[in-house]
Write a structure and sequence with these properties.
The chain has one helix spanning 12-65; strands at residues 97-103, 109-115, 122-134, 137-149, 152-159. It has one domain (28-166). The protein contains one helix and five strands; from the N terminus they run αβββββ. By secondary structure, the chain is an alpha+beta fold. Helix content is 30%, strand content 27%. A hairpin with a 2-residue loop joins strand 4 (137-149) and strand 5 (152-159).
């Protein structure tokens, strides 16, 4: 006479099926999650660029009312200690961004914010210095605020400088310049 054993637990085939289902779900979920993270990072760049653009316009209006009519100049050290990094934003907003300065081929001064955890995303404020300093007078006549990432190298948020005017300015393409 055969005795019936009551078994507890899962069979090997049941475990393999569950692991296969988890693997299939992971192959779908991980790319979707990575795409969401990338979208959030680009949105962060757009928000920072919009904030900087608003600050630049506000600064220009203030200087116009005082008689000079200049866009803010990019001055200071080429590092995170530069006060321009948080000039138009709260320091907590720019905490995840690395700051540097650059000059493009046309002589436009650039303030560059690079996302710390994804250096392919940058925000740039470029100002054209016309009439190079004559007795201390510098007129900033044109500017542009744009952001750059792998999918869109030049997305402007304001200013009269065009992509053609910004040859050699920082970007997220293969050679890292426009």
């Amino acid at each position: 006479m055969l005795k019936n054993k009551s078994s507890k637990g899962f069979t090997l085939i049941e475990l393999v099926i569950v692991i296969a289902i988890i693997g299939i779900l992971a192959t779908i979920a991980v790319p979707a999650f990575q795409n969401s993270v990338r979208t959030a990072r680009v949105a962060s760049a757009r928000a920072l660029a919009a904030t900087i653009n608003t600050g630049v316009i506000s600064s220009y209006i203030e200087s116009t009312m005082s008689g000079s009519g200049n866009y803010p100049d990019v001055t200071g050290a080429n590092n995170n200690a530069n006060l321009f990094k948080s000039k138009f934003t709260d320091a907590s907003v720019t905490a995840n961004w690395t700051f540097s300065t650059a000059v493009d081929a046309a002589g436009n001064k650039c303030a560059v914010w690079e996302l710390t955890n994804d250096n392919s995303i940058i925000v740039v404020y470029a100002v054209n210095i016309a009439n190079k300093p004559e007795a201390g007078a510098v007129a900033q006549t044109l500017y542009n605020v744009y952001f750059s990432h792998a999918d869109a190298v030049f997305t402007t948020l304001g200013g009269a400088l065009t992509q053609a005017n910004l040859t050699g300015a920082p970007a997220s393409d293969g050679d890292n310049v426009l």
